[in-house]
Amino acid sequence: MAVNLLQVGVSGLFASQQQLGTTGHNISNVNNENFSRQKVTQVTTSPLVSGSNFVGTGTRVNDVSRVFDQFRYNEVVFNQTLNSAAETTAGKLQRLDETMSIIGTGITTSLNDLFSAVNSLVDVPGDLGLREIMLSKAATLSNNVTSVQSALNSEFNSANEDLESSVQVMSEIGEQLAVLNRDIVKSSAGGASPNDLLDTRDALIKELSEYTTVSTIETTDGALNVYIAGGQTLVTGTTTFSLGIRDGDPDARQQQVFIESPSGAQQNLIGNSIGGSVGALIEYRDGILTETMNRVGQTAITVADAFNTVQSQGIDLNGLEGQPLFQDINDNTSMEQRFLSSSSNSGTITGAIEITDTNALNDDDYKLSYDGGSYTLTNSSTGETQSLVADNLSDP
Prior knowledge:
The chain is built from 7 helices and 14 strands. By secondary structure, the protein is an alpha+beta fold. Strand 12 and strand 13 (374-379) form a beta hairpin. Helix 2 runs parallel beside helix 6. The longest helix has 60 residues, at 128-187. The protein is elongated. The protein starts with a helix and ends in an 8-residue tail after the last strand. The model is unreliable at 392-396 (pLDDT under 50).
């Protein structure tokens, strides 16, 4: 059988055309950071037997594949998570530093001014003018403490808002990945590689890694199962799980991230296992920021109690017992706000915390649990526990 020379030439032209088209596609996407360069693989067409020889019949394009290194890509995803967490933490710490540098120093200044006013008044206790100055300095200190706490509360709310928006983006990425899995499985059913769809999916995985730790497993049909936060399923085939935010328990302001399966089952994600910017936000909010707020509050309570104690030991110009200079640290509202109850409590006991020794006060949070007649107090920061004895309490 004679070789069709025209057909041989046409096969070469067709192959070259696809080569040129792929090259043009590569050039057009040179500024697309999510694009993987593609290459064309050619093979010879089936030869003809001519006597004892095999005569070539031309060429054809066997495959158009991505120039893609899975190992390097996995490293990028892994390091993207670490970098995003570090950048988020650095940004939040910079804002906190600016806040404390600008208005936090007002507490120290106003406290020094108050002590100076007290020293002046001690020398001339009957001077009404000096008394007014001291009261004015005390009011300034109170206002400065309130301003700092207000700024820290705003920062706390900002962290929650960032958390909520990030979780929403993560859920949207999960939905897009499920759709891409469907399209990729459908497109690759005939054996071809849907390169551009694969690039898009990889780009979404990399974007997702900014928010949390990500691991993936490719299935035999080309779909990608996606796991986040140390192994929680986000996408399996074309099925996606959703993420959400709900109030913390017992502190409603410490919002928690949860993942919900298609059946409606929900599970909280632990902050230190989430990783990425979301994990960094939670650790910053519940760690450094909460600690700073506690320390400011501890300072305010200690100063207020010290001045109120001294006031109660003296008399005013009318010979009456001295009244508190600042709000009583153990008024009913304050004591009740220091005790938060979990929604899972089965009993009806409510609590309040009275501070009797400010020298023993620290900036840690504690958890009180009850189990079979015994109470256990756990330091949330150190994990240290101690047993407590209940006085005058009925069995809950």
